[in-house]
Specification:
By secondary structure, the chain is α/β, with parallel strands linked by helices. It has 3 domains: about 140 residues, Rossmann fold, CATH 3.40.50.20; about 130 residues, no CATH class; about 200 residues, no CATH class. The protein is built from 18 helices and 13 strands. A 5-stranded parallel sheet has the order 5-4-3-6-7, sandwiched between helices. It has a two-stranded antiparallel sheet with strand order 1-2. It has a two-stranded antiparallel ribbon with strand order 8-9. It starts with 16 loop residues before the first helix and ends with a helix.
């Protein structure tokens, strides 16, 4: 393989994908065509430059400048949150100063907006496909903490203004909560009131199919795949199809025309069958058109959120975390598991009793279902769930094999499984059948967050470096739960688990716990 192919996001012909990433390449399955985005009531178009009549930079695109709209919406949300936090302060712990004297602090708001600008809380969204308020939460905390500390230090220098420690603490808590909520509302409003961002994929095959599937599965991204371009495979013959109804809209030779005709706003470079020089030329053309550019890294399967960007004499290096973890961080994770599981068991005790009675009264058999799973260090343990199927469900499994929707691996899932009882269907819809696993968490066999606990026959299919997923305790929730549950192919789920283990941090656990809530209550169990 040439040196050019080692460049991040560089040239990797589709036929060498298996060689590059192992033989467990994800198998594409026929899926429905992607529908065109529904019409929306758009905000007025804002011209990037005077006299350009609505052109989006170098491409002939009529579209709102959603990035500018989003920045203004976020700034307005921040200013509103600060004002509301001040009113919360007056309700919870009124300052000793009269309200009219504290109005001098209104002058702090523009300075706070400038602080957020310096922390890149307004500009990062333009570079991202997934614009997540939760991911920027540490930046929000940094902004509110820095601003509150400056107000506490320099506020008393203003005439007739007194700032007490209690007021600062109340304001700090309220401002963090309101700013986070306000920014989420602002992003949602902009996404709903503007047309989807139009994305062109450069490349074809398995990696491009994965990008298309992930983007189209999440309406919250506010993105629409217009199609893909690529060079013919091996320099001749037709393009490699990427499935999902995403069509080839041209060749890389007429890339600029394709971008103008299809109103492209972002290009995603995903293992195109181009040589190094042509790929650099395509990126240069994208910049000339002022398009946004996203690149799938060469080793994307082992590059996660914890990557460190390094520079060595002008060459960019990506620093990856190792699999080593300190005993103190693991002890902290275990403490979080014990406290969280014990609290949830205590609060849910009446619900657990009601579920047990409902199961016993509506179908014969045990209340709990126990199953052998493979845990940390390849050690087996029994996982507990509320029974949601009829007695003897395992004996009926062979006769239902033809209905299995997970046809790319050893997992067995049916959306409308006839073995599920009426009560079981309700429990699965809200994932209440998994509550007894909190006992597994207390026993140390599971964690609140971790890789998916697999049954032995599934675990036997995980080979090679993917076995490192067992370096952490299996979890009640994890990346597979948040990123699609059973819609994710088995091999991709295994890779997500490995990446979670390799990039593990307590903050990542907190984010996964928060993101589990809308998934459980919004989509239903399976």
């Amino acid at each position: 393989m040439s040196d050019a192919s080692l460049v991040q996001g560089g040239v990797v012909p589709e036929e060498s994908y298996g060689e590059a990433f192992g033989d467990e390449a994800i198998v594409s399955r026929p899926k429905p065509r992607i529908p065109a985005p529904p019409p929306v009531d758009l905000l007025p178009t804002l011209d990037p430059d005077e006299g350009r009549s609505g052109l989006l930079y170098g491409a002939d695109v009529e579209a709102p400048r959603r990035d500018s709209i989003r920045r203004r919406a976020l700034a307005l949300a921040d200013a509103t949150a600060l004002v509301l936090a001040y009113f919360v302060l007056w309700i919870v712990a009124p300052p000793p100063n009269p309200l009219q004297e504290d109005l001098l602090l209104i002058g702090v708001i523009p300075l706070w907006i400038a602080l957020n600008k310096a922390l890149r809380l307004y500009d990062r969204d333009a570079n991202l496909v997934h614009k997540s308020t939760l991911n920027e939460f540490p930046g929000i905390v940094q902004s509110i903490s820095t601003g509150s500390a400056l107000v506490f230090l320099f506020g008393p220098l203003l005439p007739n203004v007194t700032v007490h420690r209690t007021q600062i603490i109340v304001f700090w808590v309220a401002a963090i909560a309101l700013t986070t909520a306000g920014r989420w509302v602002a992003r949602t409003a902009v996404r709903l009131r503007t047309s989807p961002e139009r994305i062109l994929i450069v490349g074809s095959g398995a990696v491009s199919e994965m990008i298309a599937r992930k983007v189209t599965a999440h309406a919250e991204y506010g993105a629409y795949i217009v199609g893909y371009v690529d060079a013919p495979a091996n320099g001749a013959g037709p393009h490699l199809p990427i499935g999902l109804g995403v069509e080839c809209v041209g060749d890389v030779e007429n890339f600029e025309d394709v971008c103008r005709v299809h109103d492209v706003e972002r290009v995603v470079i995903a293992f195109a069958a181009l040589d190094h020089a042509k790929l650099l030329g395509l990126i240069s053309a994208s910049k000339r058109l002022h398009l946004k550019i996203s690149v799938v890294p060469r080793l994307f399967e082992v590059i996660g959120h914890g990557v460190e960007i390094d520079q060595v004499e002008g060459m960019t290096l990506l620093g990856l975390r190792g699999l080593t973890r300190t005993k103190s961080t693991l002890a902290l994770k275990r403490s979080m598991d014990i406290v969280g599981a014990a609290a949830m068991l205590f609060l849910a005790a009446p619900l657990l009793a009601a579920i047990a009675i409902a199961i016993k009264l509506t179908s014969p058999g045990h209340v709990l279902f126990a199953q052998r799973r493979v845990g940390r260090g390849n050690r087996d343990f029994k996982i507990y769930k509320f029974r949601t199927m009829v007695q003897g469900a395992d004996a009926l499994k062979p006769g239902l094999a033809h209905l299995n929707e997970m046809d790319d691996g050893p997992m067995f899932k049916i959306s409308d499984d006839p073995r599920i009882t009426p009560v079981g269907r309700l429990l699965r819809r809200a994932s209440l059948d998994e509550l007894p696993q909190l006992w597994n968490v207390l026993r140390g066999e599971m964690s609140l967050v971790g890789p998916r606990p697999l049954i032995p026959s599934e675990s036997d299919q995980v080979i090679g470096w993917h076995r490192a997923r067992l370096d952490l305790t299996p979890g009640l929730t994890g990346p597979w739960q948040v990123m699609g549950r059973n819609a994710i192919p088995f091999q991709e789920m295994v890779k997500l688990d490995y990446l979670y283990v390799a990039e593990w941090s307590l903050w990542n656990d907190v984010k996964l716990l928060v993101r589990t809530l809308p998934v459980v209550f919004g989509r239903g169990g399976h």
